Amino acid sequence: MNFTTVWAVQCQNLEDKDFLDQLKARLVRSETQRVLRFRKSSDAVRFALGRALLRSLIISKGANKQFSQKAAWQDIVIEEDISGGKPYLSNNAKAHLGHVADFNISHDGEWVVAGVTPNEPVGVDVAHVYCPENMSDVEYISEFNLQLSSEEKEYLYKHSQQKLADFYRIWTAKEAYTKALGTGVASIDLASISVHLPPINGCLYVSANWQVTHLLQVATGTLDEGRYVYAVAKHPSLPLEFRIANIGDITLD
Ligand SMILES: CC(C)(COP(=O)(O)OP(=O)(O)OC[C@H]1O[C@@H](n2cnc3c(N)ncnc32)[C@H](O)[C@@H]1OP(=O)(O)O)[C@@H](O)C(=O)NCCC(=O)NCCS
């Protein structure tokens, strides 16, 4: 059976230079160059960890398909267009990794999440659940009113029993949805995308421009006892296989 497979890993070594050096060994040259451009070592670690986690996940999924680990690692070349857009596998990587059609990565704070699918697009997002100390949850959420649909505001302000957590579920769902499509949030009217809470069978349904889309559904969950929320936008026919990975699952030597 085919799945949308997602791994999440927590990293508390964000300032550890030796750890970053170990991660760098898991990158290809263009990624190593990008690591050098980060000003903050924590951003470099999150980026390097995201790419290393993705490779570990792809290799683990391919292990039962007779890919040699060494060959597969070097074959997983990720390309990005200068103008932005969703990173994608190089043609050579696609030829080697027939079991991966799409992938996506997200990182925030201490958490890094990566997802892959054998067909159909995938988008992932993780966010630290945060509200400034000098604001109430409602005051903070209302700063995002222009990006929320009328149905989302109705649910959040009138019905939700846990407004901040539900706001982050909606927000990460929107991010994951736009990341699956590859647009990102910058070029899209986020209020035209509406996430329907409460979930049905554990999944949220999304309507874009007021038409319910059956193309993608979004599963959400919490990490670290609710301090983080994640969302995975995926095709309804591909059940979610979610796992909290350990740093040790990422081959570092
Ligand atoms: C960029 C964006 C897709 C995700 O940003 P974010 O929520 O801050 O960050 P996340 O950690 O969730 O996601 C970052 C990852 O998404 C992936 N990504 C980048 N652009 C993407 C896109 N258009 N669609 C899907 N995934 C994308 C990358 O793998 C990136 O991680 P990596 O570079 O470390 O590999 C989106 O939110 C956005 O549109 N931001 C506005 C800025 C922007 O438009 N930048 C591009 C202009 S050149």
Automatic annotation (TrEMBL):
GO terms for biological process: lysine biosynthetic process via aminoadipic acid. SUPFAM superfamilies: 4'-phosphopantetheinyl transferase (SSF56214). Residues 121-203 form the 4'-phosphopantetheinyl transferase domain. Its EC number is 2.7.8.7. Keywords: Transferase. It comes from the Eukaryota. It is an enzyme of class 2 (transferase). This is holo-[acyl-carrier-protein] synthase.
